């Protein structure tokens, strides 16, 4: 859309230049008589207005080349053009002033219509271009902020990696060695021959006489006494304590 606005600015520059030269030649009476136009009185006012229009034409041409001035100058020139066209139509059609012949009036009305259409078109195009430029600037600012945030995140990640690398170098990682489980052998306690003997041998075996039972009981009692005496002797092995 901006190239179209540049083309409109070039057209504005040509129109402003033509009107500026026409007003600059206000003292040329024969030219105005040939074009069936009314001369501006005094001629100094016409020439001053012509210089102003030529300067505005140069500004429009410069804005069509310089992109930073395109939308602003197009807006200003557009407003000047359509306001000028409205004034021409009001004076020519409404007030019938100045009094022109048929051909001269047609030319003046067509010039007013052209200025009105071109001016309004330039204003609309300049507004659309300005809105697009604002959206583009906002997107560019958002992209720049995103790039800065990404750069900060990348720098933070690299700093964290460097810190973790330094910590690893200062404190090497502990590697657990495999634990070898040795088989546990059951502890067996030697049994003394004294404790291996039954405390109370069986004396009530079938087929024994009463005398034999009494003899065996006396022998068992003697063995018990001997075992108790051996256990009470100093230095004798003691059985483990069972709670």
TrEMBL record:
Please indicate if the UniProt record lists Membrane as a keyword: yes
The transmembrane segments are 7-31, 43-61, 73-94, 106-127
Alphabetized, the UniProt keywords read: Membrane, Transmembrane, Transmembrane helix
Ranges where the record places region Disordered? 193-243
Tell me the superkingdom of the source. Answer: Bacteria
UniProt feature, compositional bias: Basic and acidic residues: 213-227
Protein known as? Transmembrane protein
Q: Which organism is it from?
A: Paraburkholderia solitsugae
């Amino acid at each position: 859309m901006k190239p179209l606005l540049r083309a409109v600015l070039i057209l504005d520059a040509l129109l402003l230049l033509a009107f500026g030269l026409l007003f600059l030649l206000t003292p040329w009476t024969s030219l105005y008589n040939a074009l069936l136009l009314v001369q501006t009185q005094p001629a100094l006012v016409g020439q001053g207005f012509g210089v102003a229009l030529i300067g505005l034409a140069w500004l429009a041409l410069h804005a069509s080349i310089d992109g930073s001035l395109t939308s602003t100058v197009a807006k200003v020139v557009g407003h000047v053009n359509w306001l000028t066209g409205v004034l021409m139509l009001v004076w020519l059609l409404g007030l019938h002033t100045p009094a022109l012949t048929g051909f001269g009036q047609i030319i003046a009305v067509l010039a007013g219509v052209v200025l009105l259409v071109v001016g309004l078109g330039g204003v609309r195009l300049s507004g659309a271009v300005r809105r697009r430029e604002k959206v583009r600037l906002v997107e560019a600012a958002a992209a720049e902020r995103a790039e800065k945030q990404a750069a900060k995140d990348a720098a933070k990640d690299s700093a964290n990696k460097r810190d973790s690398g330094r910590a690893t170098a200062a404190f090497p990682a502990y590697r657990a060695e495999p634990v070898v489980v040795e088989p546990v052998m059951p502890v067996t306690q030697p049994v003394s021959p004294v404790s291996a003997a039954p405390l109370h041998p069986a004396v009530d075996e079938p087929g024994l006489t009463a005398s034999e039972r009494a003899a065996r009981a006396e022998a068992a009692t003697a063995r018990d006494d001997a075992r108790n005496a051996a256990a009470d002797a100093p230095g004798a092995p003691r059985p483990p304590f069972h709670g």
